[in-house]
Amino acid sequence: MTEFWKQKSLTEMSQKEWELLCDGCGRCCLLRLEDEDSGEIFTTRLSCNQLDIGKCRCKAYGDRHQIVPDCIALTPENIGSLDWIPKSCAYRRLYEGRELAWWHPLVSGDPDSVHEAGISVRPWAIDEDRVKEEDVEKYIYEYNEA
After folding, report:
1. How far apart are CA 121 and CA 115, in angstroms?
2. In whole angstroms, what is the distance from residue 89 CA to residue 24 CA?
3. Helix, strand, coil distribution of the chain in percent, nearest 5
4. What does the longest C-alpha to C-alpha distance in the chain come to?
5. Beta carbons within 8 Å of 66's beta carbon, 6+ residues apart
6. Residue 7 is inside which H or E element, if any?
7. Is residue 46 within 8 Å of residue 127, measured between CB atoms?
8. Which tens digits make up the pLDDT trace of 62-118?
9. How many whole angstroms separate alpha carbon 80 and alpha carbon 74?
10. Start-to-end Cα distance in the chain
11. d(C-alpha 139, C-alpha 4), whole Å
């Protein structure tokens, strides 16, 4: 496969190429809380109930916006304005002019490298349905940025 991410801007990529940029970490599927006073965003260990935590992939990707109306689709147009996107995210890295990380499956050739590098949420995420709504704040989590 050609290194299309080095040859094209985000807006020049086909839908297939855009989708291939997802490293499968699952971090964008974590629940976030916003402080009403400061506007600060806090990420939790809780995943959307549509995330298959073991695979770090959406169980209902094609229908996710109908099932989870507040699911935010990452696009070339909005990636620069989503401050909560992890620094490790391929979309953010390329938007910021950085290279893909060594563990990205497009670089390593191995879809498990994101997990082996400790980037994915697989070992520590918890399905949101397993936690009472009043306890969500207890799961605020600061994860390692790559």
Report:
1. 8
2. 9
3. 35, 15, 55
4. 48
5. none
6. helix 4-7
7. yes
8. 999 999 999 999 999 999 999 889 999 999 999 999 999 999 999 999 999 999 999
9. 10
10. 25
11. 38
Question: Is the Cβ–Cβ distance between 98 and 107 less than 8 Å?
Answer: no
* Residue 44 structure tokens: 């939790």
**Mean pLDDT, the chain, integer:** 94
CA dist 85 and 80 (Å) reads 9
Q: Is 82 helix (H, G, I), strand (E, B) or coil?
A: coil
Please give the structure tokens belonging to residue 94.
């390329």
Q: What is the DSSP letter of 2?
A: -
The structural domains of the chain, with segments of one domain joined by +, span 4-139
How far from chain centre, in Å, is Cα 92?
A: 10
- Kindly state the tokens that stand for 115: 């997990």
Of 69, 68, 67, 51, nearest to 59 by C-alpha is 51
Task: Tell me the β-bridge partners of 43.
Answer: 32
**What is the spatial distance between Cα 3 and Cα 66, in angstroms, rounded to a whole number?**
33
Tokens 């390593």 sit at which residue?
108
